[in-house]
Amino acid sequence: MNKKFELKDFIVITLITSLWVNASELVRYFGYVRPKMQEYFSNIPQMGTIWDVQILAVWGFWDTLLTALYVFLFWLCAQIFGNNKKSVLISGFMSWAFFFVLYWVASANMYLANWSNLIVVLPLALIETLVASYIASKLYLRKNV
């Protein structure tokens, strides 16, 4: 891999990878998280409403930041281990632990989520992080050829 961090490449790779991350987040949210959260917080009106401009803007920012962190963590791993399966696995698992395990365990611990949801949500999030790292890997390979 190119040892020099190229901002333009990083931005392009982040934007392309974000297509997967946004799709994954939407499927996980609408397919599982939203119904469970609406059930868990049934006493809160409009829980899980998403068609609000402010909520969509925050979600868009969150997904973009998340993707940028996935791509950057992969880039860091690839600098040490090379652009290979080991870097994909390390960056994917580290991203998962840092972003999702930490978030969902803290949420459940504060009674903001049901512990049983973690059995479904965390494996789905792991797939997201591993695929995002794989996409970044392939895009960096293509860029460096």
| Largest sheet features | none
Mass-distribution shape: elongated
Q: How many beta-strand elements?
A: 0
What structural category do the secondary elements indicate? mainly alpha
Mean pLDDT across residues:
91
Count of helices?
4
Percentage of helical residues? over 70%
Which runs of at least 5 residues are low in confidence (pLDDT < 50)? Answer: none
Straight-line N-to-C gap: 10 Å
Strand content bin: under 5%
Number of domains: 1
What kind of oligomer do you see? single chain
Question: Mind telling me the C-alpha Rg?
Answer: 17 Å
Account of the protein in words:
With about 140 residues, this protein is mainly α. It has one domain. Helices cover about 80% and strands about 0% of the residues. The chain is built from 4 helices and no strands. It has helices spanning about 5-40, 55-80, 85-110, 120-145. The longest helix has about 35 residues, at about 5-40.
Helices and strands in order, then pairings?
Blueprint: H1 7-40, H2 53-81, H3 85-109, H4 118-143
Helix pairs in contact: 1-2, 1-4, 2-3, 2-4, 3-4
Label this structure with key terms:
mainly alpha, 4 helices, about 140 residues
Quick overview of this protein structure:
Helix content is 79%, strand content 0%.
